[in-house]
Amino acid sequence: MNPVRVIALGWVAILCTATVRAAVVPSVEVSSETQFSPDITLTQTTGAWTDRREALEWTLAVSGATTSLDYLPVPEDIFGSAVTLNEPRISGLATLRYAVASSWTVLATAGAYHGFADYQSLWISEFYRQSFAGLPGLEDPDPRGAFGSAGVRWEYRTGTGFVESSIIRAHDVIAPGYDEVIDPDQGLVAVQPLRSELITLAWSTKFENVLTRRLRSQLEFRMAGQSETGLRLSGIGSLLYAPAEHWVLRGEAGYTTEAPEEVEGSTASRFRAGWGSLVADRRLGEHWWLSLSVRGYRDNGEIQDSISFSTSAPPLTAWQFAAGLRGVWDRHSFKISGGPYLTDYGAVDFSTLFFANLYRDRNFGVVQAAYRFEF
Amino acid sequence: MNRLNALILALSLLVAVSKTVLAAPYQVGDIVTEVTNLVDRATGQPVPLSRLEGHVLFIDFFAHWCPVCRGAAPQILREIDEWYETRGGNPEGVPILHLGANLQADNSTANRNATTTFINTYHIPLTIQDTSRRLQARFGPTSGQPTFVIINGLTNSPSHRPWELIYARFSYQDSTQSRPIEAFRAAIDSVQAPLPDLSDFKLLPDGRWQFSTTREARIPLRLEWSDGLGSWTPVPAPLPPGAAAAHQIPAATAGSAGFLRLVR
What we know:
The structure holds 2 protein chains of 2 kinds. By secondary structure, chain A is mostly beta strands. In chain A, 8% of the residues lie in helices and 61% in strands. The termini of chain A are far apart. Mean pLDDT of chain A is 91; it is low at 1-23. By secondary structure, chain B is of the alpha+beta class. Chain B folds into 2 domains: 25-189, 3-Layer(aba) Sandwich (Glutaredoxin); 198-263. In chain B, 27% of the residues lie in helices and 25% in strands. The chains are: A mainly beta, B alpha+beta. The A-B interface holds A 75-79, 131-132, 134, 180, 182, 184-188, 265-267, 307-309, 349-351, 353-354 and B 63-68, 70-74, 103-105, 107, 110-111, 114, 117-118, 121, 131-133, 142-143, 171-177.
């Protein structure tokens, strides 16, 4: 499975969560994130404007991102060469919330992006570019996509019970893989791009309940299907608990699974992933909050698209730790956080050995900063 | 009736043409006749049969641009070529000859150089051209690469006939995810060297037989005695592996006249 697929499904997750962020007054927010390791640096800066006119509230967000990586072929790739790649990505997201009645809100989201969705797809695209340079059929990758969602939020218990359901459709144009075109007397004469367009349809339903004065729960189910792949099912549960006046704890656990395509001879196993996170917020005086978080993730490897040659990632275990400081004043708020993000991949097998340097363990540093001003 | 005869004639011709043009893939145990018609990529000349004889042939159909071929090549070098080179051949001492079978035409400088780089990088000692894929087609599908073939090149092996196909495999990793190297080695190791001959028999004054083996045996061999070729009795004096040498056994374990033979 192409990592782009994972990212495309990731957009679904972003859309699902984006719809619940409700700004109270007109505001502008600027945020920036940098993730870096010795050979990979990812940056993203986002500017968002939120406003309201009577029952209609909207957010417009624009992001600019860069991916910089040192592509390094494995020794088996005797014709490959090390090269530094720099790719930009821009994206935009619009979110609308329209209160049609006291307890009903209609939700809509639309967005688009242009550029590689992640560093994995950029790496894989460079592998193909180097492998088939100069051959007819090799395309200049131009990954891009657009997505939209529509949903409804029902406040079935005033102030304490909500249910929200959305459908999402995403259309992604990805950097393709290739098949060789072989002439019986010449050998390789051209390459044929494989699937380059993905359609994702997803449905999400989320329940939020204020259980007690100190306890709030959220339960979410997602179903996502993508072109020629199996259905991905996810369940996510979270609890927000305030054990004391200046303490807030948030815990989340999730699980997702997807069956492989029914292909004769395929031994691909079902994809399974689970994750959990815990965040502790402590108020420090009138304006400041200290935040500590840990997040763990584990999967059993992406579904392999081929027995003999595959770009699919091996099993991954990842941990992210962060410490953050948030300052909140009447009209301003500021947040900065940082910490390590550690990836631990399982060993690549023969089919994925050309991507051993892509799927090697990395220790990333992550730094985030955000500023928000409310008018 | 004339139309029926014409139909039968046409069908017969079709079958004959099909057999000629679309030769059926070889099965393990078949004799591979194309070994007499291989073309050396380096010289463009036919590979003399004498270059192949006396070896187990390990043929690797590859193309320089094929990622699976590139992935397999260092493993083949390390775990087949070097493995058997350091051991002086298979367990019975039969040397291995790795033949690369190039599937990519040298139709451009880039292709020619890339194929040469591939060959040099992985020290392939002899490369034949099969850009038409006609030879590869005899061992499986031609829609991809690599294909691996193992053929017995011994003319007097007790285990296999000369040029007998021992093993053929399309692609490197199959759905079982098993390491193909083990299968390659099992096939290579199945080729038995001919047994040494016994000669120069002499009955010594102390009552022992003395005789010589004609060449090195890499595996322990046993002796059997028969006084009339009817039944064979083990002689409790196994011959250790070693170079050709004179051996002595007590005549009492055999007899004063009869036949002695070597068995595995």
